[in-house]
Protein 1
Amino acid sequence: MSQNKDVVEIDQVGFAYDGDLVLEDVTLTVRQGDFLGVVGPNGSGKTTLLKIILGLIHPLRGKVRVFGQPPERARHLIGYVPQHADLDSSFPISVMDVVLIGRLGKAPRLGRYRKTDRQTAEEAMQEVEIYNLRSRRFGTLSGGQKQRVLMARALVGKPDLLLLDEPTTSVDGRVEQDIYELLKKLNEKVTIILVSHDLGFISSYVKHVACVNRRLVCNPTNEITGDVIEACYSGPVHMIKHKCEL
């Protein structure tokens, strides 16, 4: 994949909720092929940053461009994986049907999904290794399986940028490692921005880390020092390198 294009350009962006400043003077460039991890304490503005990139909210000041366009015009080029499944677990919907939701806007407005939509959904499920679950009821899946379904739903639209908001919060360490290994593989074809609370885990996978705590500092992972972490979290933080038993 070529890596000479700017996918996301954020220039001196500020944002506030009810007058409370959440982001201040945030400047960030994400290039094609990057795998960016966004970390920071709770309430630091990480999810707000994703919403701005998606065009769901607009900054008070500053400029945002996604693929050279205003974010809301580039939304069809973005896949989004939320922190939690936005589906009622008791609702009788199959994995295939959940994944096909990602084709809305690309499928015909009236009528049933086309054969090509179903083929694309099958390809996305194979890519995230859940094709064998396609007929299962979504609500019966484990946390890790549900996250893979949500990833397939995001990928079925053939995005050029994949945004993930703490996708491993509800899974154990082994499943978390599996998901990050999958994302590393997907990064060969798609640019990724991942919000995480776990710098120690993601540092083995991402290429750059953006530390957000109202302001932003972006570094290659091999330049993340204790001073950078303490500045981001406003105090001492111990990085723990996770190790999963195989």
Note: The radius of gyration is 18 Å.
Protein 2
Amino acid sequence: MTLNSESLSKLLCERLCEDIVLEERPSGDLMLRTHFEFPDGDIYPIYLSESSSGGIKLSDCGHTLMHMSYEHEIDNFMDGTRGMLLERIMAENDLEWEGGAFSLATTPDRLPLSIFQFGQALTRIYDLTLLSRSNVGSTFYDDLAELISRWVDESKFQIDYVPDVPNAQAYLVDYKIDGNDDIPLFIYGIPNRDKARLATIMLSHFHRYELRFESILIFENQEEIPRTDLARLTDVGGEMISSLESRDDFQRKLLQRVAA
């Protein structure tokens, strides 16, 4: 099969135009229907109106938070780690916050690009709900707990340790172990990309407030973590163990740092 770029371009333009519908609402605003949708199948309603500067404003009119509220307390996404992630997403995409609605200011010539940017940003915001879900099918945390208990006396470690930093309850450490020279050892289990990002935020917070600690990050499968997320985690984290299969490596690095 030979791909014809001209015919494919024409087909894409035709189909995209067919699938994107612009409707005028009673308020005078325009609502754009696209293929962006929530997990329940509802589309992202993107509203267009004139901005105060004379350009175009895209807004979700509060629908993203409304869908998140079906199964989650919205206040949980305003503070702590999720709040920091939300602020980061908004800053990276130039989003504004208006009474529960997310908006993006743009210009007519940048409208196509801005629509995709806005849709992707709303998807990332909704994906914060994934941080509230547990992976019940995985035994990773159980296996990690078993290894630590095997090598370290229970009197020397704490689970869900509360560190001495501002807003500490949002930055719980998986395991805190009494370390050498009174420097605590923090251990994080990293089963997926979401936990890698969460650990990056937590460790960055500790460095910001000059908390003294060492860390070991142990992955369920380091190869499954996207390169960018792994690079950010490497910048702030300490020793890394690629998987629980590397038990000898984990044991050696752990016992080197545990107080006798």
Note: The CA atoms of residues 89 and 124 lie 7 Å apart.
Protein 3
Amino acid sequence: MYETKYHRASSADEASSLLGSAEDGKLIAGGQTLIPTMKQRLAAPSDLVDIGAIGAMNGIAVEGGQVTIGACTTHAQVATDAVLQSACPAICDLASTIGDPAVRHKGTIGGSIANNDPAADYPAAMIALSAQIHTNKRTIGSSYFFVGLFETALEEDEIITSVTFSAPARAAYAKYANPASRYAMAGVFVAKMSDGSAHVGITGAGSDGVFSHPGMEAALASNWSADAISGESVAAEDMLSDIHADAAYRANLVKVMAGRAVSAAGYSKAPNN
């Protein structure tokens, strides 16, 4: 790796200040993407600003049906938190499928969302749960946060501090994982909210990253069943095509995973089922 300066921030504001004063600063919490990228010399930041020890950005709380997850909360914490399991078991299940145990114990939800890898799992959940992304500067709705492949609405010195969302009435996540990386080749998170609205977040398949499916959402709002979405189409021209799966295959995978997720959510432990 190239030479870099290491800073350990004690608050989001301090981290933002350190980023602003660095020639080419990068945040690090779990480092599951940045460190391998640096080892391959594909990135050479002048400064690394470690936010992993900021206590205010770590932890999970559920109050009055509102879920808050700190940005530095690891995938393992999300997967195993008993309170979160009661409020939204689907996101716990999602976290349990990320990478391997080593990745889950280091990687963070904030890092995953900020990186916005087109095959990452959390963005699909954020879209389906209509999550709010809180930063040291503002709050951004998930529908505006994810802009494109590896691109978000975050400004250069803006730092995710937490995410919040209302506990769904029903929710589930189903993905077809690459057997080597465990990244989603197609992952679908479905959620039915207490007001009857339905939301669908799709990752791993879209050529422009995570996306929703209005047709499936309308169908599920009227009839929460896998049959309700069987007639909905997924445009192959909007899908990724690579050595793992071509666009037509991914379009089919999206429909299959959506059906599995809806069926799983019908038997979820979420409230108001």
Note: DSSP finds eleven helices and 14 strands in the chain.
Protein 4
Amino acid sequence: MPLKQVFTKEEIERAITRISHEIIENNKGVKGLAIVGIRTRGYVLAERIAKVINNLYGTKLEVGALDITFYRDDLSLVAEQPVIHNTEIDFDIENKNIVLVDDVLYTGRTIRCALDSLIDFGRPKTIQLAVLIDRGHRELPIRADYVGKNIPTSQKELVQVKFQETDSEDSVMIEESQDDKEENSKMGS
């Protein structure tokens, strides 16, 4: 199935910078702020956002990694032997403004799992959501506070986010389903 690039390395960098500035502005600075990324690419994105904010403020934000595997409502559908990663939140989240970060927001179910998991660590003052891509198709009433780019997709399409740290490149691609390709060619003729 053909891939279509929707976000280049430079566009990803600009989106991360913009999101970082929006986080600072919404929180009136960095006091009491911490960032938690959902494994795997959400954590990479969280580290990048923290790096931009740290460079702007000369600070060192606390950054955590959250594994939501055991909180998923579709665990039996994901894999017979799901891969478990470490959750690394070695700071107190009590009364902090937490920015939860993921690469793609789709149905909202991943974020619901992340919220459940995060609350097990304490009671933050606020939980805000930052995503690189919002592709729509929500099944739960969840919305992002910070969005790199809204990309309308069909439910048959697959959004692939790649980061240098995990995939040796920075890009966002959409894998067009065969049904969508045939529909697009009919509309074009």
Note: The radius of gyration is 17 Å.
